[in-house]
Amino acid sequence: MTVLDPQDDLRLPRQPGVVRRFWARHEALADWLIAIFWGLPATLITLITLETRDHVFGVWGALVAALLVVGSCAGIRLRRTRPVLAFAILCIALLPVPFVESGPSQLIPVFGVYSLAVYRSNAAAWIGAAALEVTSTLYVWLVSPLGTSRTLAHSPAQWTPIFGIELLIALAIGITVGNRRRYLAALIDRAHQLARERDQQALLAAVAERARIARDMHDVVSHSLTVMVTLAEGSAMTAETDASRAATVMRQVAETGREALTGMRQMLGVLGSEGEEAALAPQPTAVDIPRLVERFRELGLPVTLRIDGELPAEPALQLATYRIVQEGLTNALRYSHGPTRVEVLIDAASDPITVVVDDDGLPGMPTPSVGAGQGLLGLRERVSALGGSLASGPHESGAGWRLAATVPRQPDSTGKDTA
Known about the structure:
By secondary structure, the protein is an alpha+beta fold. The chain is 60% helix and 9% strand.
């Protein structure tokens, strides 16, 4: 079974707008354009203003201030991957603001607050904005006597409310965009998780279905083949001394083979292509157990049957009882050597119901066992699905084998196995 990557068949809606999709694909270009078209005017204004005025810092001071603005623009490129570092670098642009008549460089740190809200967290953005408002106000208050009287940062009373409004606008936009971004990321991640869980559930269902098919195939094929092999060996032994008896036995072989083919067709019909109607037939019930026992008697197995009480009408419970008896008798026929007693006991009068198949045969048939234990494994799964337990093993004396199962009268509805 081919497992698809969840992203292969996950059809997420495409981001609306040609322009938005373009910028989403070219994030680096967007950052460089912001740095150029916002940082370049801020640098030129800072340089020209400080260089042309008779200022205390002179030409070299103007050049240093312009370099600070240029260097702070490098934080724009880092804002997506390292927003805290980018915020710290962008704040450098505030240093020459008190000395410039109109400073667009004062808005450069606003990009840092926006980036904290979008790419880090809302809490980080609020902390960064508050710290920037307090430190910038103290800085303006300290250096305002040195600045020009026509700049916004000349008076802390003017700077604090106006710059605070700018930060609040950046916070509002950044928190809105960041929440939307994180919400979409969570939705996409959840969709991917659901797709992976769907594939995992499909795999588990396929494994469970394969196990069920293998178990049912064993119930039909193993039993029928064991009966056919036994009949064929008996026919070969009596062919020379009693030809009519051998012919009768071979007809029984043919009848058993036809029954096995019918069961196989029914199972393969269920697995057929969609639209093909499968042949349906009732599953064995407790009523069929005496006929099953009689058939093994005809094969020479000394079987005795005892049923105490009446089994509930639950189909899964009756089918499980039939399969337990079938598996126990089939194994006795295949693997026990010269049994003189094979007992089948079904105690349906108590709760839980007990089903026991016991024989006194010696191990070591002329042909070694070719079984792989699938019969008992599948039987244990069937009984466990009904809330019961299964035990099997030889007697302490080494002679004989005992298969015992207990199943509650009211099986768990979540574990019903009607196949």
